[in-house]
Amino acid sequence: MSFSDKQALIIGGSSGMGLETARLLVHAGAPVTIVGRRREKLKTARETFDVPDKDSMIFTRSVGSENPGMWHPQLSFCFPTRPVGSRGRFGT
What are phi and psi for residue 36, nearest 5 degrees? Predict the structure, then answer.
């Protein structure tokens, strides 16, 4: 199954099952946005991906304690600005 026309959002993807899910989706062709609390862990997680075009496939967004109460405005940046999927509308 190809996910090249999808955008994946993984919350809590800097380790464990979230990171492995992100890895599977990237290898299936989906650009992935990983959301986590700690910038350092997100950076480390991003570095573990072995894909040729990392800059266009893997994005990270920190919503941790440095910005308390800012979950929703920060998450709005995680969504693609282009239509994807069968409904044709997604994102901002």
Answer: -155, 175
